[in-house]
Specification:
Layout: E1 8-10, E2 16-18, H1 25-34, E3 43-46, E4 59-62, H2 65-79
Antiparallel strand pairs: 1-2, 3-4
Length: 82
Amino acid sequence: MSRRKSKVYTDEKGYKKYSNSSKPVHRHLAEKKLGRKLEPGEVVHHKNRNKQDNRRSNLWVFRSQKEHDRAHRKDKKKYGRW
């Protein structure tokens, strides 16, 4: 992504994406946080479950969808919601 401000839109699933590439904003910011491109299969999780909250501190990268699902199940047990 270029340094200039890119336009974003919200897709049908509620995630923000860049208009010029359709890349999800949360994946781009996770790559910046890690200092590398995401590996195939890595999943970016919003810690507070708010898909619109793309602060770097709110993003967590899991190695696989399986690990990501495990975190959601743990949250469901702890908080009683998915």
